[in-house]
Amino acid sequence: MAKRRDSFGAGVSEEDKKKVNKEGLKNALRIFRFVAPYKGTFIIGMFFLIFSNLTTMTFPLLIGEMTKVIEGKSKYQINEVTIFFFGVLIVQAVLSFFRIYTFSQVSEKAMRDVRKSLYSKIITLPVFFFEKRRVGELMSRITSDVTQLQDVLSVTLAEFFRQVFTLVGGIAFISYISWKLTLFMLGTFPFLVIAAMVFGKFIRKVSKKAQDELANTNVVVEETLQSINVVKAFTNEHLEINRYSLSLQKVVNNALKAATFRGGFVSFIIFALFGGIVGVVWFGAQLVASGDLILAELLTFIFYTAFIGGSVGGLGDIYAQLQKTIGASERITEILDEVSEINPDKSSEIFTPVKGNIIYENVAFTYPSRPDMQILKNVSLEVKSGEKIALVGYSGAGKSTIVQLLMRYYELNAGTIKIDGKNINAYDLTDLRKNIAVVPQEVMLFGGTIYENISYGKPDATEAEVFEAARKANALQFIDSFPEKFQTLVGERGVKLSGGQRQRIAIARAILKNPAILILDEATSALDSESEKLVQEALDGLMQNRTTIIIAHRLATIRNVDTIYVLRDGEVIETGSHDELLLLDDGIYSNLVKLQYETTSTEQVSVNSED
Ligand SMILES: Nc1ncnc2c1ncn2[C@@H]1O[C@H](COP(=O)(O)OP(=O)(O)OP(=O)(O)O)[C@@H](O)[C@H]1O
């Protein structure tokens, strides 16, 4: 797995190629199971393909027949042959149309299924998977890798059969016309094939490098566009333009190098191919002179030879396509083989609400991506149903990790977490997560309307429920101030909401979800006091009668919680209510409180800034 990630964007290593050869075909064939439901259409397409190839193969024969007519050696009239020729053309045109249409039907539908399976798989994989992969990489699996497969189904496969058909059929025909000339013609072949293979391999290597360079330029664009505000704040536009130009220049250099070889190769092939044909004509002319062959046969022979030459060239391309396809299908099946944390095909409708008694017993945890660093050590804590606790501590102490474990984003190394006395691992994962709502630090809004964003908390909510949730979250006021109200578009292409407004949307989502357990990750950045008041009021409403875990950054907001757990380096070092903890001499909590109030008496400062 890690190996694949290392090789991403860094070109196909020799080791990868070996793998492609050994298991690749098997993998590529596995992808064909997506074609299985459409095999009827596929077989019909194959018929169209075979018959349209057959009609193409008659062209040289018909040209030969026309020449015979001209030479006076045919039993047909020129008009008869011409009409027949047109007939064949019409049949060919109709067959080609249906071939393309049926193959497209199969490939479009099969690729829709591949994409759907991939997306369903990706979205149901555990959080850990996403730490190993970059979003861009997953995007390219679902877009370009699938497109590569689609090309194979819609074009390459048809081409492959056409070329093989032309090659085999063509050689059979010309051997029938004149075996002597055929042997002469085939004599030039090995030379051409070896040259094409050697050149081809080299060209692929150089082109691959050009492609990798292009991928690097995309990284520059992606990075700068994502952090456009930083670029502008540092007025580094010119620096970035230069960086991009440099990167582009490398692409050009590599592409031109590849083009030199490609150009050389094409000139060589043209020379060799036409040289071969001239040779065939020369030898054929002697056969005609000696009476072994008639002119019409020579013409047919030459046409077939050109067909055969074209198909040999085409097969080289197809081989390169096949290699790419094997790579793409390997990367796709690799993801499809991962184990989902929930069944993507089953949307669980059964929901068992919990009461919300939470107990952590001696929990120890290390992130799988950083096995050498223990994040939580022996953490024990308890929240009774309906109670509120706060986790306090410097940045990096492990507060967020504690709640992520409750959601079962990761497996514990030791200890247990129980809800209502039952180990969280014993719950159905969907059921467990349905019982928990999170109001995150940074609220992420999806592109869409405010209404859609709120109803994300309960997709089947009625309009009245959504409005009521917005009202309880103190969000109605600002929503009503927009001309389009609930239908206002937000997210990347819509209205940009302020931090406080986004938080209220998140609160409304949680209100709609209405779970027994609430996780509140306080925003680190302080809101203005008006916004703060509205958000706090909404939160107070939301917290009522729910087991709440607050990841606290501003201590003023947690005075009234039942228990405060102070964490340092993944350990709970102080436990108690606000008043109890203040009494501790030289306690961390009391120091933090002092620090916050010393820093400013009016402003609230994030604990996190004190790392
Ligand atoms: N996905 C992850 N993979 C590896 N290490 C992680 C991951 N998430 C967090 N960590 C590390 O775990 C430690 C605890 O992080 P955590 O986010 O739980 O701290 P926190 O107390 O919530 O901090 P903050 O208040 O800044 O959010 C940190 O050292 C952090 O670097």
From TrEMBL:
TM region positions: 40-63, 83-102, 160-177, 183-203, 265-289, 301-322
Whether DNA damage counts among this entry's keywords is no
Q: Is Transport included in the keywords of this UniProt record?
A: yes
Q: What is this protein called?
A: ABC transporter, permease/ATP-binding protein
CDD domains xref list: ABC_6TM_bac_exporter_ABCB8_10_like (cd18576), ABC_MTABC3_MDL1_MDL2 (cd03249)
Boundaries of every ABC transmembrane type-1 domain copy = 43-324
Record-linked InterPro entries: AAA+_ATPase (IPR003593), ABC1_TM_dom (IPR011527), ABC1_TM_sf (IPR036640), ABC_transporter-like_ATP-bd (IPR003439), ABC_transporter-like_CS (IPR017871), P-loop_NTPase (IPR027417), Type_1_exporter (IPR039421)
Q: Which GO terms describe its biological process?
A: oligopeptide export from mitochondrion
Q: Which domain of life is it from?
A: Bacteria
